[in-house]
């Protein structure tokens, strides 16, 4: 392992040097062109625009043609094999990792739990099991980008981790639990949706739970069947300890947990030595999976 870390550190240092050289060349070229144009036109804003525009374009071209981006991708891949995949294996045993891909857009869209926008990104897929409970996780970002030709805007609907877990109760109707602060969920409660697929807002007897969560279900009896007092107590505890706003969805006998952390997790820093890595994100990802399965007692089969 120490040998692998040493090789990874060498790759990181080479990539940093490569990037700094390209950055210097791009900056000098952009500065020269911007100076000449500004000196001749006396238009200072044009000079600043050219400085940043030409610098950026030159950097992208050089980084791509000289293989800098390839080195950066290789560094990230090797980093995750050592500092993400290995800790997950130590925690859960056999796991499958695909850091370039994630959970497909179709799977998330078919849940009808969240607004899908028109931009979808996903990576860092990991599949495994804990206490015989199967889980899948991936980083997902969902956005809506609009443009009218003159201006554009991007709204982020979701940016965080998405978990899909086995559930210990059989259910036949969709159930959605939305934590207060989790926006852009798709509730499917409009009268335009067929009654068979429509979700209705349900009030639970637990006042504190109602203050923290909104519940939408296709069947009220099913909602009370799943949301026992013990289950609601566990969700209230999770609300106070989770590292982001979250939503749960019970779809097709699977439990979906969407945690809006507003960041891409477990990404390495190119400018920090890997000999003393900060594995806080990785530990948090592992502990989140363990915490959800333990808190919600997903390993129990007494309800099947």
How is this structure best described in words?
With 304 residues, the chain is of the alpha+beta class. It folds into two domains: 2-66; 94-295, no CATH class. It has helices at residues 2-41, 44-65, 68-92, 105-111, 207-212, 220-226, 229-241, 280-295, and strands at residues 96-98, 119-130, 133-147, 152-166, 175-179, 200-202, 213-217, 245-251, 254-260. The chain has a nine-stranded antiparallel β-sheet. Helix 1 runs antiparallel to helix 2 (44-65) and helix 1 (2-41) packs antiparallel against helix 3. The mean pLDDT is 89.
Strands side by side in the biggest sheet: 1-2-3-4-9-8-5-7-6
Order of secondary-structure elements: HHHEHEEEEEHEHHEEH
Number of helices, counting only DSSP H or I runs of 4 residues or more: 8
Can you tell me the overall shape? globular
Beginning-to-end CA distance, first to last residue:
43 Å
Which structural class is indicated by helix and strand composition?
alpha+beta
Give the helix proportion (percent range): 40-55%
Strand fraction equals: 15-25%
Could you describe the largest sheet, including whether it forms a barrel? 9 strands, antiparallel
Low-confidence stretches: none
How many β-strand runs? 9
Q: Averaging pLDDT over every residue, what do you get?
A: 89
């Amino acid at each position: 392992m120490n040998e692998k870390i040493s090789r990874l550190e060498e790759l990181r240092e080479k990539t940093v040097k490569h990037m700094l050289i390209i950055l210097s060349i791009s900056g000098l070229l952009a500065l020269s062109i911007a100076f000449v144009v500004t000196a001749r036109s006396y238009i200072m804003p044009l000079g600043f625009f050219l400085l940043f525009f030409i610098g950026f374009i030159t950097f992208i071209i050089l980084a791509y043609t000289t293989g800098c981006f390839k080195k950066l991708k290789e560094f990230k891949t090797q980093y995750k094999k050592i500092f993400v995949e290995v800790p997950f294996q130590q925690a859960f045993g056999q796991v499958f990792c695909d850091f370039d891909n994630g959970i497909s857009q179709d799977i998330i869209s078919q849940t009808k739990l969240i607004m899908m926008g028109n931009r979808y990104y996903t990576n860092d897929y990991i599949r495994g099991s804990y206490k015989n409970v199967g889980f899948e996780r991936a980083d997902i970002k969902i956005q809506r980008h609009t443009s009218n030709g003159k201006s554009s805007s991007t709204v982020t609907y979701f940016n965080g981790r998405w978990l899909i877990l086995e559930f210990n109760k059989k259910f036949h109707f969709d159930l959605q639990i939305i934590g207060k602060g989790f926006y852009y969920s798709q509730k499917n409660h409009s009268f335009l949706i067929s009654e068979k697929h429509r979700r209705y807002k349900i009030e639970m007897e637990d006042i504190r739970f109602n203050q923290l969560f909104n519940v939408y279900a296709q069947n009220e009896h099913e909602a009370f069947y799943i949301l026992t007092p013990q289950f609601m107590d566990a969700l209230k505890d999770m609300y106070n300890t989770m590292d982001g706003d979250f939503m749960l969805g019970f779809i097709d006998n699977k439990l979906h947990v969407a945690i809006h952390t507003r960041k891409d997790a477990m990404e390495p820093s190119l400018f920090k030595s890997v000999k003393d890595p900060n594995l806080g994100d990785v530990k948090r990802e592992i502990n989140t999976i363990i915490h959800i399965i333990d808190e919600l007692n997903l390993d129990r089969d007494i309800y099947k």
